[in-house]
Amino acid sequence: MSNHPGTDHSTDHTDAQRVCVVIPNHNYGRYIAATLDSVLQQTHAALDIIVVDDGSSDNSVAIIESMLPASTAQRRTVLHRQTPNQGKLSALNAVMHEITAPYMLTLDADDRLVPDYIERTLQVMLQARASDPSIAIVYSDCMLIDEHDATIDRGRSTAFDAEKLKTMSYIPEPALCLSEAYLQVMPFDTSIKVGTKHHKWLRMVDQGWRGLHIPEPLFHYRMHGDNLSGIGARVMSESESGKRGERILSGYWVTTHS
Fold this sequence. Notes:
There is one protein chain. Helices cover 27% and strands 25% of the residues. The chain is of the alpha/beta class. Strands 1, 2, 3, 4, 5, 6, 7, 8, 9 and 10 form a ten-stranded mixed beta sheet that branches. The protein is globular, with a radius of gyration of 17 Å.
């Protein structure tokens, strides 16, 4: 484990509304600065930020080290490096014991949260769980952006439906989760390289946990040729050919069973 200089492990980081943001990264040096900045600018202050560099060969680590602030009582920061590259689910498994906050989310290293993403989703989570403690996942729509941050279109998810989830992948990666539910289904199956989101959500829902959809675009989902699901290449090709309008994301994301 490689911690950012100044990390303070003496502070209790498990207060009731603390959120852990886990960012797995592999060779996304061209995007990671914007991604990290979107987390550092969150209006919700009580955060743990764990970046997992998964065997990058570009300048990712240098950028991450230059941007991650030293830990404080409110905000704990950790950089974990694993080599060689082992895949996203392996990166998440590697830091599962670092997740001590009551709530957490996984943020892809090429995406960005709007400044009040965590504040908004946590508020919805707390209100929903007051009457339904099975709610463990809160997710939203997004805006699709290109490599240069230009807006392409809106990406829509759909209302939670446990049966629909069996055949459709519609819950996006940065969904806010109850850490208890997330950790309950770890470690993940590292043989799965595509459809990793679907694998995680299926495991959680199979345990009886439920989700809640916020029909607003609260994060920016970057489209480029290296998206693991292939969505970037498809959306950019459609956009270049003149096809405009919102995308229903489940039509682009592969499932674990694909």
